Every structure is written in C-alpha cells, then in structure tokens.
Queue: 2 jobs
Job 1
Amino acid sequence: MDKIRVLKDLIDTFGISGFEVPIREKIKELFPQAEFKEDEVGNLSTTVGNGGRQIAFMAHMDELGFLISYVEKNGYLRFKPIGGWDVRGIYNRVVEILTDQGMVQGVIGLKPPHLSKKEEFEKVLSWDDLYIDIGVESDQEAKERGIVPILPARLKKDFTILDEKYVVTRALDDRVGCALNLLLLDEFLHHPPQNTVTLVWTVQEETGLRGAQAFSARNSFDEVYTLDTVSAGNLPWGNFHQSPARTGGGPAIRLADRKGVSSLKLRNFVKEVARKNKIEVQETVTGGSTDAAAAFEAGLNSIPLCIPVKYTHSQVEMMSIADYHNALKLLLLIGTNRR
Ligand SMILES: [Zn+2]
C-alpha cells in the first residue's frame, strides 16, 4: 500500500463533522477483506489478532466544514462554520458543496479593493459578512442546481509535496490518523498481532469528541491510543514554548492538553518501546484536545500519539513525511509487542 497515495485518497474524500458517509465508505472500500462494524452514531471499527492486550487505535474521520444555512432571494448562500475555523483563512477561496446531484462549486469572495473604503481594509470580517457565490442569480436557480438548506460544504483542497520532505494540504487533521490506522490494518491482516487490536475511525471529533465518547462508553480496552495531529511550535513567531513539538522531530506523545493529563503508564510504555527501537519521539504539553480525553472520561487508559503539523486547521497544514513513516513504525511496535 503506497503510504502517500492512501493519505491523498483520504484527504480528497468528502467528510465534514456529522457528514462522514463518503469517508467511511472510502475506508471500507479500501479493505473489502476486513470485517467492519458500524455503530449507531457512525463510528467504524474492525478487530484483528487475539489474546494479549486489548488495544484500540483511534482516529477521527471528520474534518472542519460549513453548513449552508440559508439561500438568499438573489441566489447568494449563507453558511455556518462547523468546527474550529479561523475566519481569516476562508475567504477568496473555492468551496465545494455536496448535494444530492453531486458536488457544486462556488466561491467565498471578498469585496474587491477597487470597491472598498479605507476603513474596510482594517476590519476583521465576521462569518455573517460572508456569502457563497455559486454563479446563479436567484434562489430558484440555486434550487435547480440542488442547493437547499442544510447541505455540507468544504473548501477545495490542494495537495502539495514540498521539497520531497513535507505534505501540505487541508485535513491532515485527521486524515493522517485515518491513514495510519489503515496502514496498521494492512500490516495486521498479513501478520496478525499477538494482541487484540481494534482500529477505530470516529465521527464528530471536531464538534466536541462526540463519536469517541459514544464509542468509549460501549467498548472496553486496556489501552487506547488516539492517532491525531498536534500544532507544531517551530513557527517564526517565537511561540515554540506554547506547543513544543517540531515538524521532523518524530511523532509526539501528547502528555497533556486543554482537556487534561494522559495516562502516565502508557506514556512510559511508549517511551520505552521508542527507546529500545531507536525511534525519535517528542513529548509535548499543548492546547486543544483529542479523542483520548473522551476515552479517559469513559474510564479507559488513553494517550494521544500525534504527528506535529504546522498551521493546523488551515488550508496549508504541513507535516514531515519522515514523521509519518516513523509514527507508523512506532504504532506497529506498540500493537505487536507483548508486555
Ligand atoms: Zn482538529
């Protein structure tokens, strides 16, 4: 399985919070030989191996997006953000709206400089100032194109390989976790682990860890590892201390974040596996949260293992390809090792 190819496939596939059907179907389609389970809220899982420790690797399928909330008489669309967007990153871009008739494209445009007053340049825009323009002139025309409230939408994505070392795109958070989970599945289907390993793809992480909460309430494991991203601090603004993990420094053990402290037992175990196998890992205390917090609250030992990503939640999330490969090595060892 080509590791970059599978990542790009998942990035391209539609799946904003609450509308994960296409990405879930994509994951299933990549492994017709696996036995997948789908729960009531849409979480997907499959179990490989038996005996040993009960381990779960968890990644979230959803990404940030928009909901079309209202169609104006003149055909312009109003919309609401889903997940933790920064409004400064969303205008003057192409949008893709998923309708029953397929994908409809539009733009979130700004009033051009030629038509703006001086004070307008300084104003920070709010969501209510923005529209989506799909190139129609009435609500009737919009309807004919399949546009009705409430439809999901996303920004159009680019996928760039920078200097053969970095991937730059939207939704590394958390399609990289989803890809790692698939690569683990691929390996474990060929070489079953001596542990019982469940690979889980959750829904609605970006709207408050909701899928992981539901899954963790109904399933029990000895260990839960969430595979996600962490904001890398190696940026030019001198804020490394806010999230001390750098791109290219290896996968990061997220010891604590806004939601609390991870399992120290698992942290020590992961560090030991990494040390013995000479895999460079980083440890970080940062902001934000991951599905690990939801698992913890359901009484499960959990810890996030993260790929450091620059410019998180933007169109240009950037990760080191070496970190991606090293994370996979580490996860395989964690899943296979007898304790
Ligand atoms: Zn996120």
Job 2
Amino acid sequence: MFISLIMLFVRRLPGFFYYHRFTIVSCLFVLLTLFYFLIRWNFICTNAQAWMHVKRMCELYAAGRAIGSVCAPLCTNDAINNINCHSFRSTKEAVFSGEWHKTRLVFKTAASEVHDLHWHDNGVVKYPTEAEFLSTVRAIVRNKFNITISKDTAQRLSRLKPMYIETDVKKRQQELENIWMLIQDNEYLLSAIFSERDIFPQLLGTCGPYFAVEYLEPIQGLSSFLTFEENKEEWAIRLRTAIQIVELIEELENSFQEPFHLCDIKLEHFGVVKEGSRMKFIDLVGVFPRSAINSIIKELNACDVDDDCEFFDCRSTCDVKTHRCSNQVTNSNLQIVCEKIFLGWRMSNTVMIPGLLMTPHTPAELASILRQCANPSSEFGKSRMAPDEEIKKRLYNILIEIEQSVTNDFYMS
Ligand SMILES: Nc1ncnc2c1ncn2[C@@H]1O[C@H](COP(=O)(O)OP(=O)(O)OP(=O)(O)O)[C@@H](O)[C@H]1O
Ligand SMILES: [Mg+2]
C-alpha cells in the first residue's frame, strides 16, 4: 500500500523530474553522504554538535563524574547560553563558544585518550596520595615543557577551585580524575600554569574533561584579504595588527625562562582580547619552550632531506650522514610569521595569496625587509633560518613609522 502510494507520487512528478528520477536520487544520496562526512571530519560543524558536548558534560555532571566551576551554570541554572559551534576544519573534538553573564567563553575538550588515574589492587580501587599527585603534576609539566614549577603552582594545578579544599573523599577522587585528564592537554596546562601572566588565553573554568577559556576576537579584515583596492584606514588596521603580532612574539620569546615557539602559525590562531589592544595566541597545542621543541625534533624519525625535520612550522635540518635531524630548531616565530602571515601563501617561491602586509600601499622598503625576514639567507624552498636582531629591529621600526604616518594622514585628511 505504502509502496504503491510512493509509486503514484513519483509518477505524478513533473516530466523532467520523473524522467531523471534515478539521477536526482543518486545526486541526493551523494550530497547527503558528503554532508555526513563533512560533519564527521569536522569540515563543518553545526550547533547540534556543540549541544551534544553540552549534553555529555551534563550527563557526566549528573553522574558525579564531572566536577568544575562551569558545570552548574551550564547544566542546572542555564546561566551559560548562546552555544555556538566554532571549529571549522577543526582537529579537536570540540571547540564551541557560549555566553556567561555577557562574557563569551570558548569550550574545548582535553585529550581523550588518557587512561584513568586510579588502579586496582586486589580488587580495591586505589588513588595516589596528595603528595604523590603533586609530584605527578610536577613530573608531567617537566616532561611536556621542561619547566620546573614551584610547589605553590603544583598545588594550584592540583585543585579545580583555588580557594576550596575538597574534603569529601569520593568527590576529591573524582576531582583528581578530572584534573588528571585536563593536565595532559597542552592548552589547558599552559593557560593554567601561566594564568597570572595574562599572555595565553585566560582559563575561565572547567567541567569534567572540558575547559573554558576567554573568547578572543578574530583579526579584522580576515575575509577581505584578497581585496586589492582598499582604503588607508584598513591599511592602518593591518599595520597595527602586525605590530601587535610582533610585540606578542617578542614577549613570548623574552619574558620567560626560555623562549616559546609557536609551531602552528596561522592568522586564525591570533585573537584580540575584547576591546583591548592585546593580542594572544589561540591554539596552544603546538606551543612549546625551546628545549622541549628541540627534544621533539631530535626524536623525529630518520631523515633523508631537511623537509623530514619539521614539527608543523618549527623546522630544523637533516644531517645526511647520520640521517638524524639536528637537535635545534633553526627557524623562529618571526620567520614563520613573516613567511605565512605578513607575506602570504607561497608556491615555488611566488606569493599566491597576499598576506596581511602585502597591499598596494606596501612600500618597497617594507616588502624588502619582509622578504629578508621570511628568508634571511635566500634559501631555495622553505627557509630554515631565523632573522637576526638587526632585521627584527628594522621590521618593528618601519612598521611603527608607517603606522604613525598613515594614522596622522588619516586624521589630517
Ligand atoms: N579562545 C578563542 N577565542 C575565539 N575563537 C577561538 C578560540 N579558540 C578557538 N577559536 C576558534 O576556533 C578555531 C579552531 O580552534 P583551534 O585552532 O583551537 O582548534 P583546532 O582543532 O586546532 O582547529 P584548526 O585545526 O582549524 O587549527 C580557531 O581557529 C578560532 O577561529
Ligand atoms: Mg588550530
């Protein structure tokens, strides 16, 4: 009965649709499959996915398995709303934003392949003592970043609520499980260790394996990068953005015990603090202090060519005799920024998509410094050398100079 109704409906379709019914059904099928895989591989994300994560968080919270300051506002009193999916082509399991008392926050998940903290001894569930947990926290930070944290910092990291010591044994054990998962995540760990420095995105709260950081405004003009005719105001914005990026890099390199290397640089990974002039780096997965990145590079597989010695944007060279990568990262944050952000996307040494500072207004002198900065020794192929202090200074000074003159011109006209 149902089938014959469908047949009747199909036969009544206008001639064109009826005639091409098999092609149309096949196209629909292909489109739906494509849509499914686009979502599955995170090429597109829908708010439904973000809500699925909220649901998961709240289920864990209801079962007493998720502890943290954003659980209750998210799950019991709906204080966090306006949930929006954020990850476009994302490799992370979850990146979505929400609003909490007019503050926008971005939720991310900590790495999911972490084994439990507890173990079984003759059928009895065992947890580390507080002292053991503290040493474990310090060991994790040392292994990941080659940084020795103070006892106070370790203590701060071993609690989810800094002012509150959980006395209920079961709840504390659950808290330890949550922290254990969170601290294996680079992003969480860096934001948590350096929370007082206000250089990495501020950590605003956690709930189980999820953590929330401050929302950073994307860099303006991102969508209009291909425009060739633009006004002076836009040129001034680009210059100011470039200055902020250079200042951020300077701070990351010179205000810590060791310089930090940003190994996954793209424009979307820079964001501005709300209404502020401060720039921050958003994606901390590929951010490591120099000695830690050197160890990562040293442990790369045997190499034949220099291109085998790369950890995302952090590059080193291959010793062809020993087939080992050199144990030092050879390029620098500024080199990558000049190459990928300021100059633009290149292919065979030709700029294909102009970068932030490549516009019709770009003076020849700035273009020349940018080329030296991106490739200081005029290497063929990818540059593996870092620009020296002299280029760094010249670049910063010329950016300031042009920005000031453009801004003055703008106010005088
Ligand atoms: N704190 C934040 N503030 C504003 N936007 C953010 C924030 N964190 C992430 N985003 C947005 O979500 C995007 C994906 O985030 P992130 O880079 O951390 O995830 P990812 O899985 O590494 O994605 P991708 O593979 O695209 O780099 C970012 O490019 C940025 O646009
Ligand atoms: Mg990223």
